[in-house]
């Protein structure tokens, strides 16, 4: 006779070898026991001995029904029958699954069977009609879940064992009754143990006379309700913090034999606090009386995470819109700025200049607004350059003043001279803006924000106090507020993506994570000090440029060359699909006596290139163009025949610039010129593109 320590024999009948491998991986790994799960299983299946060894399975395989039948017959003859068989529905060319099961049950009616199928060939009624019974039969849909297979194996093998035990002891009904009484007692004990040990909030509620019978420790914690307060509560009061009418309806549904699955509800544990809950319940008979077992889950954090994900997706959509707007808008601004610059260069009349200069200034402000839109949507292409932070802070002041509002006092503590740094201007601005917005949100009733900067030197001893710090010279930028402060227990999490303590709809949890990411990318680090009720200080350390003169000298050389007659380039190929921008470029080149040829797209440009005489020594091309040949692809193709070709890539916005590998091509790196640009910017870029890096 089989003992509880023996493995259960399971037969796999399937014509696909990999399916056999899958079952073995699922059912015959090293078994790890879980006391709580074993206790709960004991309560359900009637075996409460805590010393019972873990369930083990012994698997055998057959690829056709005929072979499986022979194995079942041999197992019965040996006195080692199979407890369970997983049978595929389709097994050409032999018997199908139903025929195989019919023949298996003909020799072993007690065999538990799971039909494995990926198709709905037969309805359940058709299956039972053909087989004649269904009490030993379940269906498993392919592809199957590992946990589901384990659950079926455990449940059905134990069911099989219980049936055999009952059959073996049917002659001794009195003994069986006594044994079952003891088992029920143990089951109750096991149920109680599992109920209390469960990490899920559970409550036992009477249905005949509705009231709370018991709750576990997790319920106390989740619902902020003491056990002494909960026991004996009626439906009117059990739903404290819930809609009482809804609770009455749910209890009535259970009393009628129904069940509740993942029912959404709102819980208010204290005034002003809202928690999102999910509850499930099942009717339960205990000693002849109707009860219900409730399981409640607090899903507030899960729902908030999902909301933040949706917010992030909205930001991505905004970014895509901003990118499209920026591309077209910057083309328009290029034309406005270009022609106003040309007019100013050609006209010395004060009245005329007074009318033109405001137009040019408005275009510049519009360009800055477009750039800010890209920063907001995180669609700005990083372009590190030497920054004068005094200029950056001066440009930021009006925008920050609008962001902060008039109810908050803003103090600036920025010296007249700060060391230059190498950074993308938009990214640096985003760091400051995000920190200021964070400080503003910590001052709902007003207060003070200080924006400070200074040069500093970090010695080795001081650097050792912070794992991210390194000795050297830095520009230290601080944003200080006297607001609510940050609790110590969450201070370590504030830079995590999607982590926020702000109310729903008032924060994405991405601002500080973006600051942290940008700062690290630029070679710096960030520190934060905070005290609840007193305020918070964020300090960003950015490495300075130790020898900035080289770049200044090169810029000066480039500018001088731009004004020298443009000897570096003799014949320019200009590729631009926007007609107004193309006309502007042509006018600029004509005014400076620069030989050039215009092309409306990359395809036309390649045709012109092949027949050019003299050959072109400089390419000025927009990146985004129609007909399948963008500016980068065009430049790469032309560089293959002339690696010395100077290349200037212009762009209102292009996501191609996000990946620097896209700019890899024979010869020197191309010069990137962001739209809108002035004529002087264009000429300087053309000159730099024709200067050898060794020059």
Distance between the termini: 93 Å
Q: How many beta-strand elements?
A: 22
What multimeric state do the chains show?
Answer: single chain
From the spread of the alpha carbons, the general shape counts as elongated
Major sheet, described briefly? 5 strands, parallel
Low-confidence stretches: 549-566
Strand content: 15-25%
Strand order of the largest sheet: 2-1-3-4-5
Q: What are the SSEs and their pairings?
A:
Blueprint: E1 8-13, H1 17-27, H2 35-45, E2 57-62, H3 65-78, E3 84-88, H4 97-107, E4 112-117, H5 124-131, E5 137-141, H6 146-168, H7 173-197, E6 201-206, E7 211-215, H8 217-223, H9 227-230, H10 235-238, H11 244-255, E8 260-267, E9 275-286, E10 289-298, H12 300-346, H13 350-376, E11 385-387, H14 389-404, E12 408-413, E13 421-423, H15 425-441, E14 447-458, H16 460-463, E15 472-481, H17 488-491, H18 511-521, E16 525-531, E17 535-543, H19 549-562, E18 572-575, H20 579-591, E19 596-599, H21 602-611, E20 618-622, H22 631-641, E21 646-651, E22 671-674, H23 679-689
Parallel strand pairs: 1-2, 1-3, 3-4, 4-5, 12-14, 18-19, 18-20, 20-21, 21-22
Antiparallel strand pairs: 6-7, 6-10, 8-9, 9-10, 11-13, 14-15, 15-17, 16-17
Brief overview:
By secondary structure, this protein is an alpha/beta fold. A five-stranded parallel beta sheet has the order 2-1-3-4-5, sandwiched between helices. Mean pLDDT is 79; it is low at 549-566.
Give an account of the 3D structure.
With 695 residues, the chain is an alpha/beta fold. Helix content is 45%, strand content 20%. The chain has 23 helices and 22 strands. The strands form five sheets. Strands 2-1-3-4-5 form a five-stranded parallel sheet, with helices on both faces. A five-stranded antiparallel sheet has the order 7-6-10-9-8, with helices on both faces.
